[in-house]
Amino acid sequence: MVPVPHLPRLVALRRSHAYGRQFDRFENARMIGWAREGDADHPGSGLAVVITIMSYLF
To answer: What SS3 state is found at 56?
Structure first.
């Protein structure tokens, strides 16, 4: 498995911004995404994530 150098930052962003309703997208076998819309109890919250296999982009 390849290390993820920015994993601590990604976990911190999830902890501070992943509030509210979640919307999932599964476009194909090589790309997924989801968004959290945030909520009033956590001003500035909300988060969008896209994960892809790099070879799909090139």
So the answer is: helix
Q: How many residues does the chain have?
A: 58
Residue 31 CA: distances (Å) to CA of 15, 26, 34, 50, 58: 23, 7, 11, 7, 13
pLDDT in tens, 21-43: 999 999 888 889 999 999 999 99
The pTM of the full predicted model, rounded to 2 decimals, is: 0.72
What is the distance between the alpha carbons of residues 29 and 51, in angstroms, rounded to a whole number?
A: 11
The pair of three-digit structure tokens given for residue 42, joined into one six-digit string: 């956590």
> Can you name the residues that pair with 49 across neighbouring β-strands?
34
